[in-house]
Amino acid sequence: MRAIIVGAGIAGLATALRLSHAGWETLVVERAAARRGGGYAVTFGGIGHDGAERLGVLRALRDRSFVTAELAYRRPDGRLRFTLSGEAIAATMDETSFTILRGDIESVLFEAVRDRTTVRFGTTVTAVDQVGRTVTVTLSDGSTEHADLLVGADGLHSAVRNLVFGPEQQYLRNLGHQVGVYMLPRRPQGLADGASGTISDGGRTFAINSVGNGRTTAFFGYRTDIPTAAVTGDPRVALPAVYRDMGWLVPEALVGLRTADSVYFDTISQAVLERWSTGNVVLVGDAAWCVSLFAGYGSSLAVGGADALGTALERHRGDIPGALAEWERALRPDVERKQRLGRWVKDVYAPRSRLMLELTQLPLRLASWPPVRSLIGRHLQG
Ligand SMILES: Cc1cc2nc3c(=O)[nH]c(=O)nc-3n(C[C@H](O)[C@H](O)[C@H](O)COP(=O)(O)OP(=O)(O)OC[C@H]3O[C@@H](n4cnc5c(N)ncnc54)[C@H](O)[C@@H]3O)c2cc1C
After folding, report:
1. Is residue 83 part of a domain?
2. Residue 279 sits in the same domain as residue 358
3. 94 falls in which pLDDT band (50, 70, 90)?
4. Counting C-beta atoms within 10 Å of the first and last residue's C-beta, which end of the chain has fewer, N or C?
């Protein structure tokens, strides 16, 4: 059996790895000219943990994970509001969850699959045709490939989804926020090793995280209905405009923006489709079900979903549509639960008013008090 997988992100690489274990030949097509590194810190766990274990990459992922030693909530001028200790942060996670850079998940998967698949960088898909059980894919390098299965693992703005299911306007649910994330060239002096700091003010959030090995990520998330958010398009214009009055490490982080290698800048959206497959074409990861960073579970779902897809295809040998239907039935409830969580978080994520901010952060303040800590941990994991 042969699969063409579009996208060498977490979902695409995990799918290639799982299908190779099931005896499939795979070709991965990636638009970027080379592998992308860096990224932002994600919490990895749940079905991702179990999927990673079956894929044989859990140890390597854990080796790259890091522990946040302290999380400080600050006022816009940098004065401290309250601090969560490493212990309190750990209480919000169960023992199967850990924190890791998104790019490191990709690296681990790539190392595990590189000898088991072919990856064609700098290439995308331009046309898809399904006749009977064969999918014919035209690629941007002019070549034509045939396969038993086409997997669209090409993220929120999936080209496979556009070509096979229709334009993204039908499927993307904009959650009214914009996000900009990038790595800083060095850890600012004002941020201790292993520490994180957050400012939330007037519909805008800034977070800076020391993520191990001297690496630091800067994160900007803001409501698109605040007046300054009208500046869009180029993050190098938008972020300095929206955050111009914030102090503490914000100016230093904005200087880092000028030379950052790669900046993730997009709306925070969910993908909502009635079906994730049609015939022998299936979408996986953010292309199919993006739950958004508000739900904080996209990487875990990408790995767990890819693993489950391989299992279903193994069970239904020769009946790909049957396997895809069974896989989707099993996975959908988890995805829909996380999408509901994402929609709930959007309303409390970057409050515009001071009162709302105090109310939404009250549980975090309480989390620094040991008797409440375990209770909140159970609530956040539920
Ligand atoms: C700021 C932020 C914080 C997050 N926090 C968490 C968290 O705490 N926990 C968690 O589990 N998840 C988190 N996520 C979500 C998580 O990163 C994603 O859900 C996950 O990486 C999905 O991976 P994917 O492979 O489906 O898509 P992507 O990572 O978008 O990968 C898609 C790949 O396809 C390629 N591609 C795109 N278009 C084409 C094309 N036309 N042709 C060929 N290739 C193409 C891209 O270059 C990319 O390599 C967060 C996301 C963000 C933005």
Report:
1. no
2. no
3. confident
4. C
